[in-house]
Structures are given as structure tokens and as C-alpha cells.
Write a structure and sequence with these properties.
CATH architecture of the largest domain: 3-Layer(aba) Sandwich
Number of domains: 3
Number of strands: 14
Radius of gyration: 23 Å
CATH topology of the largest domain: D-Maltodextrin-Binding Protein, domain 2
CATH superfamily of the largest domain: Periplasmic binding protein-like II
Shape: globular
Structural class: alpha/beta
Distance between the termini: 31 Å
Strand content: 15-25%
Number of helices: 11
CATH class of the largest domain: Alpha Beta
Helix content: 40-55%
Order of helices and strands: HHHEEHHEHEHEEEHEHEHEEEHEE
Largest sheet: 7 strands, mixed
């Protein structure tokens, strides 16, 4: 028999996210005493404390609390999928939800929709374009069935099938001394002001690559779009680094930018097809995955893509 309710788990997760009882109470629209009582009941049932609660400081998780919250979030995500009417509607009407990471969508969305229309003519494909965190949440919540993304920030809750491997590109002004080289290394870029994407996982990933060569570069600009990065790089205010590089050298403001591949092998990033690890494949999802894989491998983004071999295994 279960002695802990989903509501109690939701209360614990809300306190962990908000780091205070008062903020969680407002978010959940419950009284603070009711929330405190629920936490006390959960901790009594488990036999250990989940939070460190000291007056005047933020509420923080104990090691036991970190384990509990991680498991509770996964369970709540599965529960939300069970009660999502749209999930059952997709199963009845032959719908497929596809997600694409922001930077990959301009290169792949059109070709993917064409490929899926040919492979699954009776299936209605709905798509969304989002960042890493939103795609991961939408997959676990059942809002989308699969996503094409870089392999960043994904844990064991997801199955990932590698489709291609992309080297990063250094975006440079045409008169930059490195612009005439066939390739550059991270060490050559380490002392330059960098232009990176603002998304947290992306920034941490890029800085982690530089740490592998013993460098701690300065981030001069953080941007939300590739075109802003290309424009700034074309103006010589810094060196942009992106895994996406359009064929055209012209920027929106009429200047030119040069894309030079970064040759450090460990910096190459997989493009993956992501699905919830617990999802059971059916004929529709298998056909969609095959069509997506063939499309990505045949139409990789400009800038140098090494396609994954068809026999490459899935990772979870």
C-alpha cells in the first residue's frame, strides 16, 4: 500500500524549487502551515529530513532530499503524462509531436517535415522549436514524442540515437589573421574575447571545452541568436563559436563573416534523436525515427558534419 500521495511529492518539489516555504505556498495556492505540515508528514514517513530549514536563510536540500526530489520529479512527470488528454488523442488520431533545438531548426525543420510526410502520409506532424530544458520537459511530459537536439543536459531518462557529429565553427571577421586558415584550434582562440550563446547549458559546454586545453577565456558577449553572433563577429568585436554555420558569408547587416572549423576532435558534438527512455516504440515511431535519421544524415547542416554510421547504437 502507498502511504505517500502525489500531492505531498508535489509540495516537496515546489519547496525545493522555490527554496522557501512561503514562495512554494504562494505557487501552490495553499497555506504555509498546511505546506509545513505536509513536509513534516513526508519526513516522518521517510525517517530523515529532506530540508535544512533555518530562519532567515534559504531552504536547502539535504543529501537525502536531493535523491527524493530527483525521483519525485520523474514520478510526477510520468503522472502528468498519464492525465494528459492530448497524449491519448495523438494515439487515436495518428499524431506525432516533434521537437527541434533552436539552432538546428533553421537547417532541418523543412526537410524533416517533407521526409515525415513521405514516410507517414496518414500521420499529422506537429512541431515545436525550443531550448534544451524545454525540449527535455516536453518529452517527459508527453507533449512531444521525439526531438532532434545536441546531446547536452540529457540524463538516463532519455534514449539518444546519434545521427551526426558536428565540429564547432569559429566565426571571424574577414580581416582576422585566422580567417585564412583551413582550421583553428581552441588553444588559438583562448586569449580572444568570445561571443557565445546565452543558453546556460551551451555556455557551460563551451567553457568546458576550453578548460580541457587549460584555458579560461573571457566571454565578451552572450547572444540569443546565431545571426546576432555572426553580425558581431563580422564587426570584429569578438570571435563567435557555434555548431551551426550557414553556407552564406553575408550577415543581415550586409557585412561578411568567415566560418573556420575548430579541429580539436573532442569538441565535436553529436546531433541526436531523443525519446523518453520509458517510451515503447511502435510502427509509427519506428518509421518516424528512420525517416529522421535518413534526413539528417543526408542533409547535415553546413559547416562540416560527419554523419553517424547507421549501425551506431542508442545511448540511454
Amino acid at each position: 500500500m502507498l502511504y505517500m500521495t502525489l500531492r505531498q511529492m508535489e509540495y516537496v518539489v515546489a519547496v525545493a524549487r522555490g527554496r522557501s516555504l512561503s514562495e512554494a505556498a504562494v505557487q501552490l495556492n495553499v497555506s504555509q502551515p498546511s505546506l509545513s505540515n505536509a513536509l513534516t508528514q513526508v519526513e516522518a514517513r521517510l525517517g530523515h529530513r529532506l530540508f535544512r530549514r533555518r530562519k532567515g536563510t534559504a531552504t536547502t536540500l539535504t543529501p537525502e532530499g536531493e535523491v527524493f526530489v530527483g525521483e519525485a520529479e520523474a514520478l510526477l512527470a510520468r503522472a502528468r503524462r498519464l492525465e494528459d488528454p492530448a497524449r491519448y488523442a495523438r494515439a487515436r488520431t495518428g499524431r506525432l509531436g516533434l521537437g527541434l533545438f533552436d539552432d538546428l531548426a533553421p537547417f532541418h525543420l523543412g526537410p524533416l517535415l517533407d521526409a515525415l510526410a513521405r514516410a507517414l502520409p496518414d500521420v499529422e506532424v506537429h512541431y515545436s522549436v525550443a531550448d534544451f530544458e524545454v525540449l527535455a520537459r516536453d518529452l517527459l511530459d508527453g507533449r512531444i514524442d521525439m526531438a532532434v537536439s545536441y546531446d547536452l543536459g540529457l540524463d538516463a531518462s532519455f534514449r539518444r540515437d546519434e545521427l551526426a557529429r558536428v565540429p564547432p565553427q569559429a566565426l571571424l571577421a574577414p580581416d582576422d589573421p585566422l580567417a585564412g586558415q583551413a582550421r583553428v584550434t581552441l588553444a588559438e582562440l583562448a586569449d580572444r574575447p568570445l561571443i557565445l550563446f546565452n543558453e546556460g547549458l551551451s555556455v557551460r559546454h563551451m567553457l568546458g571545452l576550453f578548460r580541457q586545453v587549460g584555458a579560461r577565456p573571457r566571454v565578451a558577449h552572450r547572444v540569443r541568436s546565431l545571426e546576432v553572433m555572426r553580425s558581431l563577429a563580422a564587426g570584429g568585436v569578438g570571435t563567435g563559436i557555434s555548431y551551426s554555420a550557414p553556407d552564406t558569408a553575408q550577415t543581415y547587416d550586409g557585412r561578411r563573416v568567415v566560418s573556420v572549423p575548430i579541429s580539436d576532435g573532442f569538441a565535436a558534438e553529436p546531433i541526436v534523436l531523443v525519446r523518453p527512455a520509458e517510451a515503447r516504440p511502435d510502427d509509427r515511431s519506428r518509421a518516424a525515427a528512420e525517416a529522421i535519421a535518413a534526413c539528417i544524415r543526408g542533409n547535415g547542416p553546413p559547416g562540416g558534419v560527419a554523419a553517424a554510421r547507421p549501425g551506431d547504437g542508442a545511448r540511454t
